[in-house]
Amino acid sequence: MCVYNRPFDDQSQPRIMLESQIFIMLLSMISRGRFDLINSFALEYENSKNPNIENMLKISDLLGYSTDYISCDEGILDRSLEFEKYGVMGMDAVHIACAEKAKADFFVTCDDNLIKKLERIDNIGIVYYNVIDFVSREVFKT
């Protein structure tokens, strides 16, 4: 959810501004079919808690670009508990479990702390990136 919220964050910070621009570029690529976007119950739940109703509605519209939807099930909840053993807490653990369930090619985030925690997990079933690294390694790869 942090990636979806980037355009609404303080753009005076260079990294936030760059991540926002990358997100907009990725949305353009998604709309042209270069990448698929996966939505989940976890993303919708987290977005529903956004105190800024206007931002929540805009993000909800963006989630509409998704080509797949992951519903809650016991397997996801069990897997998220496994991630919590490595310090990946709460909704972050659920998001990762949803990405695994979807067999996503990539999990993209702006959360450096989450990336550090994921690096400690040997049996994670997805490739994960910071949004900047994703662009340099997957979008602009030769």
Question: How would you explain this protein's 3D organization?
Answer:
The chain has 142 residues and is mainly α. It has a single domain (2-139), classed as Rossmann fold (3-Layer(aba) Sandwich), CATH 3.40.50. Helix content is 56%, strand content 10%. It contains eight helices and four strands. It has helices at 2-5, 14-31, 41-48, 53-63, 74-84, 90-101, 112-118, 131-139; strands at residues 38-40, 68-70, 106-109, 127-130. The strands form two sheets. It has a two-stranded parallel ribbon. The chain is globular. The two termini are 29 Å apart.
Task: Summarize this entry quickly.
The protein is mainly α and 142 residues long. The chain is built from eight helices and four strands. The strands form two sheets. A two-stranded parallel sheet has the order 1-2. A two-stranded parallel ribbon has the order 3-4.
List keywords for this structure.
two-stranded parallel ribbon; mainly alpha; 142 residues; Rossmann fold; 4 strands
Strand order in the largest sheet: 1-2
Structural class: mainly alpha
| Beta strand % | 5-15%
What is the global morphology?
A: globular
The CATH architecture can be given as 3-Layer(aba) Sandwich
CATH fold title: Rossmann fold
- Counting H and I runs of at least 4 residues, what is the number of helices? 8
Total beta strands: 4
* Percentage of residues assigned to helices: 55-70%
